[in-house]
Design a protein that fits this description.
Elements (H helix, E strand, L loop, with lengths): L2 H11 L5 E4 L5 E6 L6 E5 L2 E7 L1 E6 L2 E5 L3 E5 L3 E9 L6 E7 L2 H10 L14 E5 L2 H12 L7 H17 L4 H8 L4 H14 L7 H7 L4 H12 L3 H20 L3 H7 L5 H12 L3 H8 L10
Antiparallel strand pairs: 1-2, 2-9, 3-8, 4-7, 4-9, 5-6, 5-8, 7-10
Length: 300
């Protein structure tokens, strides 16, 4: 049996229904869908994502990434993206996994490995695609197999995950992943700024203050932030505000003006314009449409 076929069968076995599922392995989640999903606006945390069956589109700003079983996706910083399952059916459901990255484990690997073990390439985007190689695929399959023997998970899952991270660190993602764990790296500085923006997205963004917290000049900060996220700090903040406002309207039945004010907008008309620009429709029409969509189709 091909490894990718075994991976699809394992994910099918441990999901069995459409949706997103946590597992007994820490930070490992599985996904299944029997129909294409709605475009899903989320803040994607650092992770590696593998598709066993089906196809997905991810959008970061104006950039579009298509990936399937031949590739894997890595995200090295928190990024506002639009995820969209585009190939899925009842006969061949979309099946995938996401392993959230553990900076502590990455740091330990970097300290223990010989200094010349990893590539010194500098990262750019905080999200990228790479071909799925046989060694990494075998590693992923062995990790998912552990779900069949829960008693082995506490002992073997950390070892298998450690090997998986080693494969990533010695592959084309080396530069990106190394910088997650290195406190002096530009990526770490940008990530620090992202954390500050996320905690204070409702407030007026002062670039000079955020740049200072990231230990960069305003011009250097703007340049590196856009290189990693594909958007300016203000655009990043705007996406956080609008995603949160959409969540509030959908989950708490707030009206558009109240939701806009809750996330930092003083002008209801400006909020509605920017909401429609991001989500394709004004708040009322967008929410009315989403309420008629099955929940699992919003989990793209």
């Amino acid at each position: 049996m091909e490894k990718i076929t075994e991976l699809a069968q394992l994910i099918e076995k441990h999901t069995g229904a459409d949706g997103l599922f946590s597992t007994d392995i820490p930070r490992l989640n599985l996904a299944r869908a029997t129909a294409p999903s709605e475009p899903n606006h989320v803040v994607h945390e650092p992770a590696v994502c593998v598709i066993a069956q089906g196809r997905k589109r991810a959008m970061l700003g104006d950039e579009v990434y298509y990936y399937d079983k031949a590739t894997y996706l890595t995200v090295s910083v928190d990024l506002p993206i639009v995820g969209h399952v585009i190939e899925a059916s009842k006969e061949e459901p979309y099946l995938s996994l996401r392993l959230d990255l553990d900076p502590t484990m990455l740091s330990a690997l970097l300290l223990e490995a010989p200094k010349d073990s990893f590539s010194n390439q500098l990262p750019d985007r905080g999200m990228s695609l790479n071909p799925m190689g046989p060694e990494l695929l075998d590693n992923v399959v062995r990790l998912i197999r552990l779900l069949d023997t829960p008693k082995d998970i506490p002992m073997l899952a950390p070892l298998t995950e450690r090997e998986l991270l080693y494969r990533l660190l010695t592959g084309e993602q080396s530069g990106r992943l190394r910088q997650i764990a290195q406190s002096e790296s530009r990526l770490h500085q940008v990530n620090k700024a992202i954390g500050l923006i996320k905690r204070n997205f409702r407030k007026t963004l002062r670039i000079e203050h955020v740049a200072s917290e990231a230990n960069m000049s305003p011009s250097s900060f703007h340049q590196h932030f856009k290189a990693v996220t594909s958007m300016s700090p203000l655009q990043y903040q705007k996406q956080l505000r609008l995603q949160e406002a959409r969540r509030l309207i959908l989950s708490q039945s707030l009206d558009a003006a109240t939701a806009g004010h809750a996330v930092g907008y003083d002008s209801p008309s400006q909020f509605s314009r920017e909401y429609a620009r991001l989500f394709g429709q004004p708040p009322l029409r967008d929410i009315a449409r989403l309420k008629d969509v099955p929940e699992y189709l919003l989990e793209g």
